[in-house]
Amino acid sequence: MPDLTTRIGNLTMRSPVMLASGTVGYGPEYEGIIDFGVTGAIVTKTITLKLREGNAPPRLVETHGGLLNAIGLENVGLERFLAEKLREAARLGVPVVASVAGTSPEEFGQLAAAVGERDEVAAIELNISCPNVERPRNPVWSDPAAVTEIVSAARAATSKTLSLKLSPNTSDILSVAEAAERAGADALTVANTLPGMRIDIKRRRPALGNTTGGLSGAALMPVNLALVWKVAGHVSIPVIGSGGLADTGDALEFLAAGAAAVQVGTALFANPAAPAEIVKGLETYMEENNLASMDELIGMAREERRICTETT
Ligand SMILES: Cc1cc2nc3c(=O)[nH]c(=O)nc-3n(C[C@H](O)[C@H](O)[C@H](O)COP(=O)(O)O)c2cc1C
User: Fold this and answer.
1) Which residue out of 85, 163, 192 has the highest number of ligand 1 atoms within 8 Å of its CB and is therefore the one to mutate?
2) Is the pTM of this model over 0.90?
3) Ligand 1 centroid to 21 CA: how many Å?
4) Which DSSP string do the residues of 124-190 spell out, in sequence order?
5) What is the per-residue pLDDT across 70-106, written as a single tens digit (0 to 9) for each?
6) Domain-by-domain residue ranges, the chain?
C-alpha cells in the first residue's frame, strides 16, 4: 500500500486531504456526512477574538463554475471556541487546525497563544486573506511588512505549526510568501477566494448583501493552482493548496505543482464524499505508478524534480 502520510511542520496527517476553513463549520456539523477517518485534518471556521455575526444576507450566490460567499467571518469568538467547539472537534479523531484572524499583529499573537496552548490544536492557520470583512485600501495580504509583523507576533506566541493563508488577490504573492517564511511561518496555504460579484436583475441590486464576495469552486482552481506553482518554486516551507479542488485529478494537479497537501472546500457542498474519494483515488494513482510515498508525488510536474528523477 502506498503511504499517504503527510507532514507539515509538526502536523502529521494520515492523508494530504484537509477540509478547508469555513466549509465544515467547527467539524461536528459534518459528523456522519464526511468520512473523517481518511481525512488529513480539519481546518475549523476562522475565529476572531470577539464573536462576529457576519454580513447581511444573502451571503451565498452560485455562479458559473463556482460560488460567491460573503459570510463575513461569522463565528462564536475565541472564548466559546475554546470552551466548547474545540473539545467537540477534537472528538472527531482527526487533527484540528485552528484558523484565526486578528485585526492587528497583537491580536494575531493573542489568538495564536490562546489556541496554541490547547492540546486539541494540532496546528494554526493564520487567515489574513478574507475578502469579506473591512476593505482597506492596502490590505495586509498584499503587504510584506504587515505580514512580517503578523507572523512574527504569532511565532513569538506559540511553538505550534503555523500556516499563513495567502490571498490570490495580489500582484506580488512571492514577496508576501517570502516575508512569511522569513518571519517564521512553517507553511503557506495558497490560497483564499478571489473577490467577485453578481447582480440580481429582478431586484436590480447586487445579489449579495455585502455587494461583493469571495469566488470559490472550479472557476478558482486554475488561478490558485498557478499560485501554488509559483510559491512552491520560491519558498522552502511546504505549501498547502486550496481552490476549487473537486476530485482526484484536481488534487493530483495541486500536488504535482508542488503542494504538500490540499484542502477541499466548496466541492463538499455538492459532494461530501469528495475527500474520501480523493484519498482512494490518490492511493490508486500511487499504486498504478509505483509511487511509495508522498515525497514522490509532491512537485512531480516541476522541471527540477523531473531532472532529479530522470538522472537517479
Ligand atoms: C462558505 C465559505 C466560507 C468560508 N469561510 C472561510 C473562513 O472562515 N476562513 C478561511 O480562511 N477561508 C474561508 N473560506 C475559503 C475556503 O477555506 C477556501 O480557501 C476557498 O473557498 C477556496 O477553496 P474551494 O474552492 O475548495 O472552496 C470559505 C469559503 C466558503 C465557500
Assistant:
1) 192
2) yes
3) 5
4) EEEE---TTS---SS-GGG-HHHHHHHHHHHHHH--SEEEEE--S--S-HHHHHHHHHHTT-SEEEE
5) 999 999 999 999 999 999 999 999 999 999 999 999 9
6) 6-311
